[in-house]
Specification:
binds (2R,3S,4R,5S)-2-(hydroxymethyl)piperidine-3,4,5-triol, eight-stranded parallel sheet, Immunoglobulin-like, Beta-galactosidase, Chain A, domain 5
């Protein structure tokens, strides 16, 4: 319905432009991506970078970089597309046919460029959706043909972009379970560098589907020409960076073609996921802010809406709980002042109760022994205590020790004639199969219909695909990676039609699924099972490059030896929550946390929706500092973490950014710790001090750290008249 409405408002602008000589200029506020009809009838990319003052200047540009270079003819490089036709001919010639601009509103336009083969009935459409004010381009491709039988696609990029620079610097983000988003920057050398995933589900456990690419020199937070990009796909992805003999760089981005030949039927449209990118000539900070604004406004579910603070029971109890214990825990949540209690793994399974991770997955009925009165009772009890109730599920997975496995062995991805390959004692359900999609949808729908008061879901996915084989897909096994993700999106789409508002956290054995394909359907994501606050500074720092603060769930837990203050200060820089035994808090710790939650409620607007400035990187110094500034620049929150005071004495002030130099600001430290942290009082003993914005940005603020290795400070900065 929504889609129909959107289309009803679309205005087709200027009609189709045929065989044009003039450049096709795809513009945003500060950037331009320019195409032209080049040699022969080929479409070539002549420019991507800072917008020129005079549009006429683009006409002077030339290039031989074909926009979406096919394989099979004269192409000597990595192709964007490769197709084998009905007659076995493995070549494609894509000629420019037309372009048109579809205007959605003042800020959002889509340029569509049509390319066709002159020998075979094949049409390729390139789409560039621009978000003018945010400087964001979403680029995807639609492939269609009209041959007698299916053609085989072996490559099907979302996007191909070309660059010319002296040097290219790639910043990638990689890791593993418990070590998500390690940032690494390296200079690209001639030949090919590939960043990809072949993991299927939990696809970005090792490599995240996002990167920075800086031209000529390394980019800093405030300087340099840099592209920030990501692929909106919750499955196998591939980014190919190829530097050729002329030192030109071609980037090919899209779903991973690995083991994924696609048999495309006549008339069927093969739509690739969106490759989303922005260009900044002022370094990485601006690129991140562009992505944050776009994400909150246009991509993340309820991106500009509220989020609930919560108390989760995973690290507090693991599988070891019962009804009474949970009800006790609700009290902790209420006392703390969070909005919601989140019941994690371990509440389901009867024939095979889920008392550890070896059994029960797939059997989504409450374990009678643990929860004799069911979820309904828990919801009621939580509500009676004045907090909402949320619940964990992992609907795409199954333990062999489950009734689901016994009843539907054909619903599981597993190879015939090979032993099962278990990971965390579980297997992956075949989301390519519509019956499985229905099972997953019904499971959530039935739970929500029975307990409409459930206020939150945590959707987990704890393993990658191995031995992947879909009984449903039969001969088309090479579609499994793609159809799995499409099946997952289909379920989410249907669930969102019925439950458009319900907050759902995307989780994948920590942060194994953090991409903007999924974030359309989710309000937030679990960044990592590593909740040690020292490690979290790095993890959250890295996520901050691509995700806004209200999407990154940061929980205060018992992991790590740091003070509760340090943990709280770290969690506060995103979406704060708790996963801790509140009853073990001292009265002082409880009072501190209650106050922190009150402060957070007051400041969350700035933290979530303000402009983020990363000031001091933990990758460069023994401390980290970042801040958020409200749009009118009347309010800011500054977070500083000293991560190795023992090794280094830090005296250089932290220079703030994003403030108004002409305004006066009162700086006040909050989250002041309980006694005994060795801290000297701030501001010469006064609780606040007033500075000009000019001073704070040019001279900076000297941060007084505590005596321990790990200390932290949070400052509330408010305009004073
Ligand atoms: C992995 C998640 O990342 C954890 O937070 C927790 O929900 C467990 N799964 C439960 O099995």
């Amino acid at each position: 319905m929504k889609t129909i409405l959107v289309f009803a408002f679309l205005l087709v602008f200027a009609g189709a432009v045929l065989a044009q000589e003039k450049p096709i200029v795809i513009e945003t506020k500060n950037t331009a991506l320019v195409y032209k009809q080049g040699f022969g009838n080929k479409l070539v990319q002549v420019y991507y970078g800072e917008k020129l003052k005079n549009a006429a200047d683009y006409e002077m540009m030339n290039s031989r970089n074909e926009a979406y270079k096919p394989a099979g003819l004269d192409n000597l490089n990595e192709p964007a597309i490769r197709m084998v036709h009905n007659d076995g001919n493995p070549s494609l010639a894509l000629n420019f046919v037309s372009s048109e601009v579809i205007v959605e509103n003042e800020n959002v336009k889509t340029t569509m460029i049509v390319l066709k083969d002159d020998q075979y009935p094949v049409e390729v459409k390139l789409f560039f959706k621009t978000y003018f004010n945010e400087d964001i381009i979403e680029n995807w491709t639609e492939i269609k043909h009209n041959e007698g039988k299916p053609v085989m696609l072996t490559n099907f990029a979302s996007s191909m972009l070309s660059f010319k620079a002296r040097e290219y610097w790639l910043t990638q983000f990689h890791g593993d379970w418990d070590k998500e988003m390690i940032m690494e920057e390296s200079q690209l050398t001639s030949g090919i560098k590939i960043i990809d995933s072949k993991l299927g589900t939990r696809a970005n456990k090792f490599q995240a589907p996002l990167f920075f690419l800086a031209m000529n020199n390394q980019a800093t937070e405030t300087t340099g020409d840099v592209i920030a990009a990501n692929l909106a796909w919750t499955g196998n992805f591939q980014f190919v960076f190829e530097i050729d003999e002329l030192n030109s760089l071609r980037l090919v981005a899209g779903m991973n073609p690995f083991a994924s030949e696609y048999y495309l039927k006549p008339g069927e449209v093969f739509k690739t996921p969106e490759f989303i990118f922005t260009f900044s000539s002022n370094g990485k900070g601006q690129a991140s802010r562009n992505i944050h604004q776009w994400a909150q406004k246009y991509r993340v579910l309820n991106g500009e809406g509220n989020r609930l603070t919560l108390l989760n029971n995973w690290e507090a109890t693991y599988f070891d709980f019962n009804e009474d214990r949970l009800v006790e825990l609700f009290d902790g949540g209420k006392k703390l002042g969070v909005d919601l209690f989140l019941l994690d793994d371990g509440w389901f399974g009867n024939k095979y109760p889920r008392s550890n991770d070896r059994a029960g997955l797939g059997d989504w009925q409450e374990t009678k022994e643990k929860l004799p009165h069911g979820i309904g009772y828990l919801v009621e009890q939580a509500e009676a205590k004045g907090i909402k109730f949320g619940i964990w599920i992992e609907p795409e997975m199954v333990n062999p020790k489950s009734e689901l496995y016994e009843q539907h062995p054909d619903w599981i991805l597993k190879l015939p004639n090979r032993p099962e390959n278990l990971s965390r004692n579980q297997l992956v359900l075949d989301m390519a199969n519509p019956e499985v999609q229905k099972f997953v949808y019904d499971m959530v729908d039935q739970m929500m219909t029975k307990h409409p008061q459930i206020g939150f879901i945590k959707w987990d996915c704890n393993r990658e695909m191995t031995n992947a084989y879909s009984a449903y897909l039969g001969e088309k096994q090479s579609h499994v990676y793609i159809e799995y993700v499409r099946g997952f999106y289909k379920v989410m789409e249907d669930l969102r039609t019925k439950y458009p508002e319900l907050p759902i956290m995307l989780c994948s054995g920590g942060g194994g699924r953090t991409d903007y394909g999924a974030m359309k359907y989710f309000t937030e994501f679990w960044a990592s099972d590593n909740t040690d606050p020292l490690n979290r500074i790095y993890i959250q720092w890295a996520y901050s490059y691509f995700f806004p603060a209200n999407t990154i769930c940061n929980h205060i837990t018992s992991m790590g030896k740091q003070s509760l203050k340090f943990k709280t200060d770290v969690a506060m820089m995103g979406k704060m929550g708790y996963d801790i035994r509140v009853e073990e808090f001292t009265p002082e710790e409880l009072a501190f946390s209650q106050q922190a939650l009150k402060d957070y409620a007051r400041l969350k607007e700035v933290i979530w929706f303000g402009d983020m400035y990363r000031l001091v990187s933990p990758y460069e110094e023994s401390r980290a500092a970042l801040m958020y500034v409200s749009e009118p620049k009347d309010k800011a929150v500054l977070f500083c973490y000293n991560i190795n005071a023992y090794r280094e004495k830090i005296t250089n002030p932290v220079k703030l950014q994003g403030l108004d130099p002409d305004k006066k600001y009162e700086v006040k430290e909050i989250n002041i710790q309980q006694r005994g942290d060795g801290r000297r009082p701030p501001f010469g003993g006064n609780s606040t001090r007033v500075y000009s914005g000019d001073y704070l940005m040019k001279a900076g603020l000297e941060i007084r750290v505590g005596r321990g290795d790990l200390s932290s400070n949070v400052y509330e900065i408010s305009e004073v008249q």
